[in-house]
Amino acid sequence: MELQNNVINAENLNEDNTLSVVQDKLKPGETVILDVGYNYFHQVDKLYELLVNEGYYVRKTFINGRNQLLVAQKDEKHQMY
User: Fold this and answer.
1) For the whole model, what pTM was predicted?
2) Pseudo-torsion of CA 24, 79, 75, 66, nearest 10°?
């Protein structure tokens, strides 16, 4: 797991680890990209629901054959469009 330009390789992270990494790395006003990869076992959907229920803005994307989640904190000053 490395953070380069706010991209986190999340292929090998489980749900609890992913939530911990997002909470540690995400700062107000920033967006983190979780690169989930090939979506084995519907991992993207599970992580999406988990992060939305925790109060994050989350968008699903599919870039270059890989599933990604764009994650930002929900607050009154910052919004993801």
Assistant:
1) 0.82
2) -30
